[in-house]
Amino acid sequence: MDYVLKTNALCKKYKDYKALNGLSMNVPKGAIYGFVGKNGAGKTTLIRLICGLQEPTSGEYTLYGTKSTDKEILKARRRMGAVVETPSIYLDMTAEDNLKQQYRVLGLPSYDGLADILKLVRLENTGKKKAKNFSLGMRQRLGIAIALVGDPDFLVLDEPVNGLDPQGIIEMRELILKLNREQQITVLISSHILDELSRLATHYGFIDKGQIVKEISAKELDTACRKCIRLEVTNTQTLSRVLDGMNVEYIIVSDKAADVYARINVSKLTLALAKENCEVISMKERDESLESYYVGLVGGKEND
Ligand code: ADP
Fold first, then answer.
1. Which domains does the chain have, with CATH numbers?
2. Which of 76, 192, 214, 285 could serve as 63's disulfide partner, Cβ 3.0–4.6 Å?
3. Do residues 171 and 27 lie in contact, with contact meaning Cβ atoms separated by under 8 Å?
4. pLDDT digits (tens, 9 = 90+) for 266-285
5. CA-CA distances (angstroms) from residue 268 to 239, 246, 274?
6. Which atom of ligand 1 is nearest to the CA of 158?
């Protein structure tokens, strides 16, 4: 598989605090990669690093195969557009003038493609209206339009639906899907809103305390969620040992129960447990949601 972005044991320290603590992630070409984590998990820090706004304390990443330590990284970064935190918009300018400004910043020889970008983000009819009079959703879309100048094939969006109303969220979702499907743009979206991401993402990276705790494709996640079996036993320590021996993925959910995310041979498992004096009290298939999968990985409470 081709990867647009790969990070290897990235660390970023702010004084003694490790905002990123050995983060390794892989964004496949063509993906909509949902970068999910609680507030304070380290999402924006990672995005600032790959955009070149800050330097890692240690570790490295590759963008289109170019190492972050290589001077060619600047060239690779030109293939990337980003909206980090609040979009950098001139509020006293129209949408068109904001875009023209970005063309000039990038030193592009003409305004080729400008009208197409405005149309793509559905701001083609905003005329003389200044950005300060735009809704939040329109501003967010203008931020994306600016990021699209220079024809990037990797778009990085930091919490793009934060603060948007339901209509704004739908428009943002449609835009991201369109960019991915029609323009073949790989998208990295950070969010702490799982439900919204689940309508978009083809891949997920779950981040907690500056580390990726799990990377999984939407397809695999679907399967994992469907195949979850809740096992209630008399001793979860024994269950852990036996499941480890069977090399299956599971999460201990209480002192009596575990969720197993794979097809298991029930009679083999029951026998193995019985040999170690552990009884199966109940076993039932659960239709697990993305949310409970996530909570199982990183716990339920916000860090802040
Ligand atoms: P997220 O985007 O997942 O909400 P951030 O990457 O913004 O998380 O922050 C990760 C952690 O690093 C937080 O605890 C935050 O307070 C801390 N942090 C971020 N930027 C700085 C900074 N410039 N100086 C000190 N601490 C910071």
1. 3-222 (3.40.50.300), 227-287 (3.30.70.100)
2. 76
3. no
4. 889 999 999 999 999 999 88
5. 13, 10, 10
6. 2
